[in-house]
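Weekly sync, protein design subgroup
Attendees: M.S., D.O., the rotation student, P.L. (late)

Item 1: inverse folding check
M.S. brought a backbone from last month's batch and wanted to see whether the design step gives back something sensible before we order anything. D.O. pointed out we never logged the input encoding, so this time it goes straight into the notes. Structure tokens as presented (300 positions):
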């Protein structure tokens, strides 16, 4: 019988995961200062995919060889990396990392909405509906303030982050098709497919050999790839097995204050009063949707 995991260690790893994913927005903000978004994300998927592939081989696993699974990896890559990673990177050329963190943390809300409308594999409860309402109110407070000021570039950047969040929600639902595989296999496969899509686009549109990225942007790319992608995924897969999927998703509301704090500490960012209020609604909404479900899961 396998030893029971030390819950103190697992909860500590949950905090580390929230820090790694919360830091990703600041890494992106620094990276896009001198590296175009498509090239930045091409590098991110390539480096992370290579690290995950090495971990798979170290564990004695092998990627599937059938065409059907790889087509699914390709579709998952579009939902989970190509589209959302690129949208967020492009958006962060004009919005703060902290604001992107808040908006992107609403992915559990959109996952619930898509689930309720399409797959209907999870029950709709009053608490979840309240959580959805709070999260949407938070989005409206943040985005609505920009809308009242006119259709500026920052508004479209915020809407791009929300579109990325919806894409993440679709990825979470489509990811149920990989239940028979070790979780690290679709992660590596989708990263490799993402790199295969983005590298040609980078070569055609950005001509990376003509770029002169700063040392800070290169280090940000490495940090984003190694820590916020490859290492974060490795921790995520461990927690899926020890805390369960619902328990692991609780990092969604943990990473909001962490991501905002990292942006404030290292990038000198600050939020307006409306954004702070919106963050409160988002955190409350995501927490309302995850904490009760986790308690139920643990009780079972």
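Designed sequence read out in the meeting:
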């Amino acid at each position: 019988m396998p030893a029971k995991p030390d819950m103190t260690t697992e909860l500590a790893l949950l905090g580390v995961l929230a820090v790694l994913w919360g830091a990703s927005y600041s890494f992106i903000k620094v990276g896009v200062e001198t590296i175009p978004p498509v090239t930045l994300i091409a590098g991110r998927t390539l480096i992370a995919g290579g690290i995950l592939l090495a971990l798979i081989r170290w564990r004695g696993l092998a990627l599937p060889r059938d065409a059907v699974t790889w087509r699914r990896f390709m579709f998952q890559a579009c939902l989970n990396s190509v589209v959302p990673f690129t949208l967020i990177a492009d958006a962060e050329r004009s919005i703060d990392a902290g604001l992107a963190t808040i908006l992107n943390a609403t992915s559990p809300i959109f996952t619930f909405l898509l689930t309720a409308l399409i797959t209907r594999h999870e029950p709709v409860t009053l608490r979840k509906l309240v959580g959805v309402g709070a999260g949407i109110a938070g989005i409206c407070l943040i985005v609505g303030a920009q809308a009242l000021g006119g259709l500026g570039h920052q508004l479209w950047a915020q809407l791009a982050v929300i579109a990325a969040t919806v894409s993440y929600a679709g990825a979470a639902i489509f990811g149920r098709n990989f239940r028979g595989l070790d979780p690290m296999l679709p992660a590596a496969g989708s990263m490799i497919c993402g790199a295969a899509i983005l590298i040609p686009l980078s070569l055609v549109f950005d001509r990376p050999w003509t770029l002169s990225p700063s040392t800070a942007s290169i280090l940000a790319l490495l940090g984003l790839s190694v820590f916020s992608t490859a290492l974060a995924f490795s921790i995520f897969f461990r927690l899926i097995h020890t805390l369960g999927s619902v328990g692991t998703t609780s990092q969604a509301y943990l990473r909001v204050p962490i991501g905002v704090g990292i942006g404030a500490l290292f990038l000198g960012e600050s939020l307006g009063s409306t954004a702070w209020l919106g963050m409160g609604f988002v955190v409350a909404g995501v927490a309302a949707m995850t904490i009760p479900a986790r308690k139920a899961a643990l009780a079972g």
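Discussion: DSSP finds twelve helices and no strands in the chain. The mean pLDDT is 85.
Action: P.L. to compare against the previous round before Friday.
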